[in-house]
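Fold this sequence, please.
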Amino acid sequence: MRFYTPQHKHYCGIDLHARSMYVCILDQAGTILVHKNLPATPEAFLRVVAPYRDDLVVAVECIFTWYWLSDLCARQGIAFVLGHALYMKAIHGGKAKNDKIDAHKIAVLLRGGMLPMAYFYTPQMRATRDLLRRRCPLMRKRAELLAHSQTTNSQYNLPEFGKKLAYKGNREGVEEHFPEPSVRKTIELDVALIDHYDKLLGEVELYITRTAKGHDAQSFARLQSVPGIGQILALVILYEIQDIARFPRVQDFVSYCRLVKCAKESAGKRPGLSGKKIGNPQLKWAFSEAAVLFLRQNKPGQEYFAKLERKHGKGKALTVLAQKVARAVYYMLTREQAFALQRFVTA
């Protein structure tokens, strides 16, 4: 957990929503200078902070509406801090909770050097990262349609298709497999939607790949040197990390990827684990997938995994492998080197 500790003359806490924002501005002594509800527009924000622009810092909680305010502060030369939503327990711990109280608490945490910081993604790669995240639910919808075709076949106890419907050539005429006209129409609908998703996903993936080569072609190529990390996983890792230098230690990076367990301890006792949802779920998924794909047609990797499996069991061995792949990626990107398989399996 990192806190924002620099001192300023004025501290602005904002409880930000889609159409409104509650603004609280404090001075160094903690005196409330502004405490009002405003429309969430650049004009309203600049107007209310204008008298206090001298050495001002602005803080908001990390929710989906912060992009425009972060960009506005960057253009105006105003210091901006993004508060980590899961760490900001103080906002939710009071007897009463509303926008006015929340804005004041954000400002107080900021003034006291106790505001837990989240990383705010810079605009250069942010929109492409969001487009890549948008691809994931589209892929899930496509998978649901493929699964529906298979379950429909099982409902009527018909012979297996005998081929993977994920490939376009194997889907031609698949509706003829079903004798019932209404069922055939259902499968026709599924196939038409799958074909449409394939077209959209192909266009999105091509666009993101070309954009990634413009953003950081070297890192994109290095990531694909890891067995099991193909084009899509490399894109996810590249855009979710953005700048590997923001992680001072490999332990910080692995924790951010949700690949380590966080123990709770008090008076020498460990009652359990915590913090499972703190970190990046996209990187957790990417490295978990990479660990499984790492073993495909990779004889040294399979031999190394067999040792882990004998020691930990299959499930935990995959977790250990995912963590080690993440560590390897960290050192690859920081040292600007390609993946070395022999060093990986012998380390």
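The first helix runs from residue 42 to 49. The longest strand covers residues 20-27.
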